[in-house]
Design a protein that fits this description.
Oligomer: heterodimer
Shape of chain B: globular
Structural class of chain A: alpha+beta
Order of helices and strands of chain B: EHEHEHEHEH
Largest interface: A-B, 33 and 24 residues
Shape of chain A: globular
Number of helices of chain B: 5
Strand content of chain A: 15-25%
Radius of gyration of chain B: 13 Å
Radius of gyration of chain A: 21 Å
Distance between the termini of chain A: 28 Å
Amino acid sequence: MTLNPIYQYLINHEHLTVEELRQVLADRRERELNPLQCAARLGLLSEPDVKRVRQLQVEQNLSFGNAVRSLSLLDDRALQEVSMAQQGEVPSFGATLERLGLMDAATYGEVMQGYIQEQVRYAEGAMSLPAEVPRRDAMLRILQVSSDMLDRYWGMEVTVVGVKVLRSELDLLDYAARVQMRGDLETQYLLGTVDGCPQGAALELLGDSDPSASDCADVVRELCNVIAGHSLAALASQGIDIELSPPESVTSPVTLDGEHAVRVELIGAFGPFRIALTYAAQS
Amino acid sequence: MGDGDPVKVVIADDSSVARRQLRTILEEDGRYEVVGEAANGAEAVKLFHQHEPDLLCLDMLMPVMDGAQALRAVKAADPDAHVVVVTSLGNSAQRGLEVLELGASAVITKPFVDEDVLTVLRTKMSVP
């Protein structure tokens, strides 16, 4: 797992708690300028244009990009400029730590030196799943696809905070779903998260601020389904052929019957996730 | 579908979230009218016969009757039917090829990207 390794390092070495990391990520998110504000600051939109865009977004539930395109206010190049400016406006991680009183700049510099040294060691050796996990390359690929999908497509800014092998029971938090993977790789792919996360995802995906419990369960099933599907494609490119079952909701904790599981914990903008892959227990 | 008439669409997906996402994309575009939603392949085939839509958007991985079975049933009944397959199977070229060989007009991948969905449909359905 390579996503946001700096955060992983900070947690693993107890420079930050999970709660503090969540606080920093939330703070950065809050301070990020939205694209409309960025476009106005760049002088690309006048005040009346800003009002028109905002009104259209509210009336038709459009994204910023679709709204300005629809009003013929900005072309793709200008949108790219807005996007770059928006990224530049996000306060740095180190600056946020200092502002929240969690770590001063000098200490953060020292921590980063340690992180760089550890990365060099990782590059020389291998950061991998525990040795008992079979097909580790394939399992890692699935986990990598998982974090990439959560991060890239659903904007959850996930980072890995721990890997654990479980032998009898699998706690997957409040909402969980499973897809069976069969073929060259035999495993159950399970994804769980806390109450609040599916609600955040539903808002992101559907613009629905008050999803029902049934919708929340469906959101988690769909995340599980889409991740498993993309894992299938990633594995196929490595010559590993699998078939998937339709996703199903499961109740946590899940009993591991004749199987063990490797469980990865991630923390995202909407809360923690747990992703697990099962494998046959060695007799 | 006459000139200026909206394209009538039936959406089949076991995920209500995915159905709502796709419905929103299509309806916000203004050139499509979603006339039915199905939660599995069997319902999709039934709604296809009931509504005779211009387009059936069919998820591949569904309970009861999966997308491939439903696609075969629809194409057997109406070889000219426009069926767009919706899949979460990433960019697996092999899977895409398989459904196109079964008679699908195109493949849309999840997660949905509004512009990509509309571009595929516009191209395949000759929507102005």
